[in-house]
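Let us work through a complete example step by step.
Step 1: write down the sequence.
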Amino acid sequence: GQALNGLGQALNGLGQALNGLGQALNGLGNPINALGNPINALGEPINALGNPINALGEPINALGNPINALGEPINALGNPINALGNPINALGEPINALGNPINALGNPINALGEAINALGNPINALGKEIC
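Step 2: predict the structure and record it as tokens.
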């Protein structure tokens, strides 16, 4: 009787700890989803690098005055390379935002450990009653 009550209380504590862990894990969703926008934003400037890189081929093959002819497409690389900076910088905020829910996992994980530890005494008592 008493041992079963102790076991029931410990199992309730385990359930509450698991609920807390679930809520903390749910909190990861928003910052992970927020990573999508800056990652998607990288696509356009990366694709924009293709045109000036392809444009390099023609002046190199021309051999007329390749050094001067290379200046324009090389300078044209600057804009898409610079444009990469904004989405890369924008990745910082959602990555930092992951820290809070990950840190928040600590409390429910600790509570889960305490609830599991609390199972020990009632299980031992139940075992002694059965024997």
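Step 3: interpret the result. The CA atoms of residues 80 and 121 lie 65 Å apart.
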